[in-house]
What does this fold into?
Amino acid sequence: AAFALQLFGQRNISAAPAAIVMSLEGVIAAIAAWIILGQILDLNNIIGCTLILGGILLSQLAPIYKKNHK
It folds into this structure.
């Protein structure tokens, strides 16, 4: 069911937001495993999540920064 919803969502939005959502999939899975299953996140997991979130923020904020500081 989740896979079908994912495919439906990807069809109905443009490529950039779809890529952002797909990039967040690993981060959301790690956080859900930590909260729901009580899985312990080691340093590698935390660093990976931080890098993914940082990359997403950078990709979204860089065009805004460029536009405002020209």
User: Anything to note?
Assistant: Residues 31 and 41 are 9 Å apart (CA to CA).
